[in-house]
């Protein structure tokens, strides 16, 4: 079965504000105050919780950044889980695009570097989890993107064929995952990197979900 695999943060949903709020919550609890800006630091948010904490502690001139990050990371996950959908929304056109793919016989699934429990919770609260045949998170397997193993697992769980599949994402991690898996990549231009993702030379760019069907058919039939 033809299969389309989606990244989550920055691809299906704009999660940046809630991620940054959780990181700033950690800094607030240690008396440092907010260190990250919801707009200027959004691209860092989509690189994960540790990346946000690292940036904040570097701004604070923390003596041992690695230790500080690991100490605060569990608390960040707690704060994020408590407020996971306060500001998060699906990008325009996602619902219609996914429905159209399913109607045309494509399998669809999610492969994300967000912890699987948080990803499941978020997609359920957004009332979108049932659209996808599988969800593979950062902790589903011992490996995570850009290793291709989670991608292949998402395809398998969705009942798809990896030789007729592609990955829709928003960052260099997704581009490298697709390259490692030997499949086409489609990078969205409405994520935090904007049109700059063109520099990664994906097989296609996606400026809006209204165009997804045509892009997918052009790449995997």
From TrEMBL:
<dbReference type="InterPro" id="IPR023198">
    <property type="entry name" value="PGP-like_dom2"/>
</dbReference>
<comment type="pathway">
    <text>Organic acid metabolism; glycolate biosynthesis; glycolate from 2-phosphoglycolate: step 1/1.</text>
</comment>
<dbReference type="GO" id="GO:0005829">
    <property type="term" value="C:cytosol"/>
</dbReference>
<protein>
    <recommendedName>
        <fullName>phosphoglycolate phosphatase</fullName>
        <ecNumber>3.1.3.18</ecNumber>
    </recommendedName>
</protein>
<dbReference type="Pfam" id="PF13419">
    <property type="entry name" value="HAD_2"/>
</dbReference>
<dbReference type="InterPro" id="IPR041492">
    <property type="entry name" value="HAD_2"/>
</dbReference>
<dbReference type="InterPro" id="IPR023214">
    <property type="entry name" value="HAD_sf"/>
</dbReference>
<dbReference type="GO" id="GO:0008967">
    <property type="term" value="F:phosphoglycolate phosphatase activity"/>
</dbReference>
<dbReference type="InterPro" id="IPR036412">
    <property type="entry name" value="HAD-like_sf"/>
</dbReference>
<dbReference type="GO" id="GO:0006281">
    <property type="term" value="P:DNA repair"/>
</dbReference>
<dbReference type="InterPro" id="IPR050155">
    <property type="entry name" value="HAD-like_hydrolase_sf"/>
</dbReference>
<dbReference type="InterPro" id="IPR006439">
    <property type="entry name" value="HAD-SF_hydro_IA"/>
</dbReference>
<comment type="similarity">
    <text>Belongs to the HAD-like hydrolase superfamily. CbbY/CbbZ/Gph/YieH family.</text>
</comment>
